[in-house]
């Protein structure tokens, strides 16, 4: 029995990053008043948190299959043709994500010696967000492709 969980690891990470982002932005706002001395690092941390959050939200959207798509042309096709079309699209998407993962890896290597402006870390940590999240995306695409193939087999056996 395949029960889809309500919460996923990547969705939880994206949520925690969002909460941290709210806290950092609140600290930025308070830093512009006379109440708190505003730290200079909040601007960069806010940007980094946003990037990591956005990249971890992508696999959560993939898990829920809630991405935006222009399906009105595909919906005119027969159900089996639709299923094959979406399978082809997902296989192509998987290949593109493998290539983007490789680009992310090369970017990490290229930026490893670049130092962040206000944080005591390498810029590679920022670019690692795409590389790390891409594995979650690949996992979710693979899951969807597996389900699509199983559904196509079941429909083929039912005829």
UniProtKB/TrEMBL annotation:
Biological role: Part of the tripartite ATP-independent periplasmic (TRAP) transport system.
Homology family: Belongs to the TRAP transporter small permease family.
Principal cellular location given in the protein's record: membrane
Summary of subunit composition and partner proteins: The complex comprises the extracytoplasmic solute receptor protein and the two transmembrane proteins.
Membrane topology: Multi-pass membrane protein
Segments passing through the bilayer: 12-30, 45-62, 83-104, 124-142
Subcellular location field: Cell inner membrane
Keyword Transcription: no
Residue span(s) of domain Tripartite ATP-independent periplasmic transporters DctQ component: 21-150
The protein's name: TRAP transporter small permease protein
Phylogenetic lineage: Bacteria, Pseudomonadati, Pseudomonadota, Alphaproteobacteria, Hyphomicrobiales
Alphabetical keyword list: Cell inner membrane, Cell membrane, Membrane, Transmembrane, Transmembrane helix, Transport
GO CC, one annotated term: plasma membrane
GO molecular function, one term: transmembrane transporter activity
Pfam families to which the protein is assigned, alphabetical: DctQ
GO annotation terms (biological process): C4-dicarboxylate transport
